[in-house]
Protein 1
Amino acid sequence: MNFGRRDVLRAGALLLPLAAAVSCTEQEEPPPPDPLAALAAQARADAATASAVAEAVPALADRAKAVADARGEHAAALQKEVDRARPPASSTKAAPPAQTSPPKGAAAARKSLLDALTAAEQAAAKVVPSVERYRAGLVGSVAAGCASLREVLA
Amino acid sequence: MRHLVQPSSGGKKLAADSVDAVQSALGAEHAALWVYGLVSAFLPDAFNAAVAEGTTAHRARRDATERLLADSGQTPRPAEPAYVPPQPVKDQKSALAVLVVAEADTTVGWRAVLERTDDANLRRTALEALTVAAVRATRWRRAAGEVPATPAFPGQPAK
């Protein structure tokens, strides 16, 4: 009954050099994407949506403008950190977010902003536990900012 | 089964370099509780529910933070006997203003914890505390008619 475990260990020992050999051939793999890059893109898209809402829906103009301003600041700070950590080639400017047409009507527009802020808060909160310390502060403030912006729209 | 008594936090000790930040966050919770006790006399009944909610939340956070420190062999920093508000509290306007300050100070305290720990669980706790304080600060700023009702980066110390 007790041979299985030892055999597994032996098999594992045989696999180790193989695994090392395989990883050597993968050195050309690009590094994994910076998790803050996705948060920055989300912030840029939210800022664009909120700006469009502010223009299209007078009843929400002030509050949507507040969301647009804050999400624009989030995008800038997150992108700055992404670029600092991994300086971009001069040609790879962040793509501007696609033009979005905001939902017609105050209620639908408000809901679309609230949903976007909830998604952004959750995405940031997911990143906070595992990033470097100074990034945890920045991303934590972005998450708390998104929650607060929902309160602005309440 | 080496340990007969498990500490309530699950036995995870605070790293030494996180302790000061957690003690400061605890200090902000103490101060916020004191402020919530102070303001109720200056606010109309319409604010009772919000004051009660804030009081309950800060008390729970204070207790949990004291346990966290005690479980790590640290003496939780006690509350001061009294605090000096940045401006005298004498009416609704000044009461709302000091609530905003108390919540904003709390966000600064917990964001600082985020930047001084690698422990994922403590980061989650700190983010939760930062977020709920930021939302309450926003609520009080709105009640006071302050614009903007939230900074873009709650908890980021003023530069």
Protein 2
Amino acid sequence: MSRLCALPSFVALALVVSAPAFAQTQELENPGVTAAVQDRPYRLLHELDLWFGVLPLDAFYTGIYAQVGYVYHFTDRFAWQVGRGAYGLAARSSLRGELERNFGVQPTANDEVQFFVGSDVMWKPFYGKLAVMNRAVIHGEIHLLAGATLFRFTNSGFRPGINIGGGGRIFVNKYVSFRLDITHNVVLPTGGGTTSFGNVLTVNLALALNFGGND
Amino acid sequence: MLRLLACATTLAAALSHAQQPAAKPADPVTGEAPAEATPAPAPAADGGVAAAAAMGGGSTGTGAAPVAAPPPPPKKIDPKLFDDALNDYFAGNPKAAAPKLFDYTENVPSTDENYAWAQFFLARSLIELKLHHAGAVYLSRIARERTNPQVLTRALEELQQLTDRPHDEAMIDEQVFGALDLGFLSEDVAGYAHYQQGLVDLRVGNERWATTHFSKLPEGSTEASRAKYAMLVTRLKQARKDLPKEMVDQFFELAKDEKLTREARNDAMLAVARLRYEAGDFPGALEAYNLVKLGPLEPGRAALYLEEAWTRYQLGQVHAAMGLLTTLDAPSFREEFLPDKFLLKALIYRDLCHYLPAKRSAKELTRRYAESLDAVRERDDLTRDPRLLRAASARGSTQRARKFLESLELEGEQLGRYAGTFGERMFGYMTRVYDLARAEAVRVYQRRLQESVRVEADKLLRAAEQVRLMEYEVGLKLYERVKKGSKLVALIEEEALKSNQVSFKFADEYWNDELRTYRFSLKSRCIEETAR
């Protein structure tokens, strides 16, 4: 009985002891590290973005907006989205129509995002390439965003918010790339007499025009 | 003396030809008498095939000459047939034109005013049907028969174009251009003929005669550049020691000559790199290697990478050299015959005092090439060893012979598609042309293969010998005493990553765009020699 109990311990011990030995053997047989060191084919400096986006979170409407923005890239890893400004239109949902028709809810009762401006910092820790059907290689990066946004709502007026998000970029060539960003904005309970936090999710796709990065 | 004899033979042939101007040559392939039964001596064999057959087994070694079928009775030909065929040809229908032109050439005397033209357009039709060798056979026949000077010039131009692809070197280069009377030719064709005749002279060691031919080439022409290259290569082969310094510059100049083919320019640049390497100018060699223009996965790349790795090793850039050796393990290059690769890897590990990996790399050579080494030791037929065979047939004249053989096989298959269109007689004739050409091509390929496979085997044996020495040396080092107070030698500085660079750690997955960029990192474990 005691032998049976000891067996798993022996196995575990053997595994623990043999792991470093195995690693050492590997190191002895194949010493050294090999890496492919390449020049980045696409580098960014000034970036002008033309965005198209949606605000999908509100059940009573879907906001559709256009946005322009400018980003300055300090390094390959860090950038500042200096400014972005968007103007949106609301596409009211069927739920909203139903409420107005059947329950007498006023059309002005809902607060909708009219436009917003903001600024973010960008951290770009991921850079890589993808093989497309073993025929081509495309380069891209993934970035994280944090910033502040000032919203203009139809009812409550101007309200500030803080946002975090992330996105990805696929390079087409040295001058053109596509970006897809998703950010979550927490709208602060200030202005317009509101007392609760608001949430605005933005999903947007951009055509990014890059200048000066590869010079 | 040889030249005089050749002239005499040519003169005699020309005289005999002149005495019987109306004679139509015997069928070059089957040896049939011409349709009109004129008693005519057959001039040089068509396509080199019948010539080889006529010379007997010693020449062809194939014994593949088919039994001649009884000649069909002469057929009366409507002169309009030629016009019909031309109409078909110019209407873009070579498939319909070819059998008519064949019929015409087979049934009119060679004195017929359209005979040579019919042969020419038959050749063109066949070339357009992708039967290049058959086309070349007819063009060569025009070049030898010389019944119509106008057609002759055009036929030679066509033949010259055909030399850009795999072709019968004996039939076109040697028997047509190598034996041409040069007086009547246009400048372009004469230039090419001079070049070919010069090459023939160079091959047999008559550099003075070759120079005479090459001096007649127009300055700045493609042939002049090619001739310069051929002369330099010959001198390089002859020079045993003390290579003239200006030879590097001459090769370098040629490597930039746009009139040469890319392959020749690359060869010239490789010659520059190798000469500089031999002279100990390693940075110069590296510069020349970088100027060789090859696609990233082209077959010549592997050898280039290995030579560059050796150069970097000589420069003390062992990490960069090892990076290049990693590249050579990529699937695209893994099967390349590069026994030196393992030797260099072992040397690098040894220099960094990693003796076990050094020993293992050295052993890898004997393990990887065990079958080939056994074949050499057992005195087997080396052409049966797949590695040696692949290496031997990938270079030089053996590669050309292999490519020609492959093209013949491809065209032979292509010919089958026209069995119905060509008719029984023409199809049978073409089949015999291809069968004989193939038999001769196989013989030439096998002969060249025997020679080049021996060269590759020598290379392998030399590398195996070096590896044994390395194993012995590493074995001694493994058991060397480390003295008290020993310190590690100063580390070789590895290049830091620049801000615009990105590093992808290698994890046994090769990306084509990374092949040239591998960097190896390994700390030296060597002990200072001065330690006590």
